[in-house]
Design goal:
Elements: E1 4-8, H1 15-23, E2 33-37, H2 43-50, E3 55-59, H3 76-81, E4 86-89, H4 92-97, H5 102-114, E5 118-123, H6 127-131, H7 135-146, E6 157-160, H8 174-192, E7 201-204, H9 209-216, E8 223-226, H10 233-241
Parallel strand pairs: 1-2, 1-8, 2-3, 3-4, 4-5, 5-6, 6-7, 7-8
Length: about 240
């Protein structure tokens, strides 16, 4: 399968910076799919810049409802209207800062699929859970509770992001990453059958040009969900170029 390098821009940048960053990525990298996820207010302008390029565009969240009295929220259909094709769901910052549960992530994922979006569902353990020896169990539970029927056949993507590694500069060892990705692959195949063998599994958590090659060489790692390094075009492209040919 083609590797995917996804950039989560989080709450960074103004319109001019978002457009400039998207322009710097248009040429892409041979053999690698690129995805950028800007703040919602910049989705359409970035999608316009990316049109006809090698770069796909996604949102960072969507609401489970199709419409209604949900001040400040956006539906999956609204995300689709901007020109976006993907949406990140269940990111640890949403789970922690907005008290999102597996059930709410499941509902959002179902809404995204119904709107024709490709969901990127995030899972990952806290430091306390890892120290307690529960990392694999937590990730397996999150997968079971967050991923609905139809996810695999629609091309859904899973991103493993150890909560304690996000934005800290710390990363798990390659052995730890490999173990979780193997666990995810096994859990998905057990739940959804052989089709899940081609579901793209991304690693996220302080991915940088310097550590990307080692991560991408691991079995069942099909790309990355990149945070801070995705805000610099040269760094993001360098990470993409680290994918083995």
């Amino acid at each position: 399968m083609r590797p995917l390098i996804a950039g989560n821009w989080k709450m960074h940048g103004n319109l001019r910076e978002a457009v400039r960053l998207a322009e710097g990525l248009r040429e892409g990298v041979d053999g690698v799919d690129l995805l950028v996820c800007p703040p919602f207010v910049h989705l359409h302008p970035v999608a316009v810049v990316a049109l006809g390029s090698r770069v796909a565009v996604g949102a960072q969240d969507c609401h489970a409802a199709g419409k209604g009295a949900h001040t400040g929220d956006v539906s999956a259909a609204m995300v689709r209207d901007t020109g976006a094709t993907h949406v990140i769901l269940g990111h640890s910052e949403r789970r922690q800062n907005h008290a999102e549960t597996d059930a709410s992530v499941m509902a959002k994922t179902e809404a995204a699929l119904a709107a024709g979006l490709i969901p990127v569902v995030c899972v990952g353990e806290t430091e306390a859970e890892r120290l307690a020896g529960r990392a694999e169990a937590v990730v397996t539970e999150q997968l079971a509770g967050s991923i609905p029927y139809g996810f695999i056949t629609a091309g859904g993507i899973v991103a493993y992001e150890p909560v304690w590694a996000i934005g800290t500069g710390r990363t798990p060892t390659e052995e730890e990453v490999a173990a979780i990705h193997a666990t995810m692959r096994h859990a998905l195949v057990e739940s959804f059958g052989p089709a899940a063998r081609t579901t793209r599994l991304l690693y996220g958590g302080s991915v940088k040009p310097g550590n990307a090659a080692g991560i991408f060489a691991l079995e069942h790692v099909d790309g990355a969900l990149v945070g801070g390094a995705s805000l610099v075009a040269a760094d993001f492209l360098a990470i993409a170029r680290a994918v083995p040919e």
